[in-house]
Amino acid sequence: MNIPADLLEILACPSCHAPLQANDSENLLECSRCGLRYPVRDDIPVLLIDEALPPSTTGAAGEASSGPGALA
Ligand SMILES: [Zn+2]
Asked: Is the pTM for the entire model greater than 0.90?
């Protein structure tokens, strides 16, 4: 992934407008506030809420949001 630092600086989460952080290992940009994760395709960040991945649960309970309670 090759996102220029000055570009990353002006990008903001389309959902909450917080700064984004590059995640090179997963090839995505992660919101520092709401945790939504935006894929980077051909070094172009896809800043669309519809395309965003839900916040990573790494280090948290893990499957808390995928139980039967999530259906409603
Ligand atoms: Zn956000």
From this structure: no
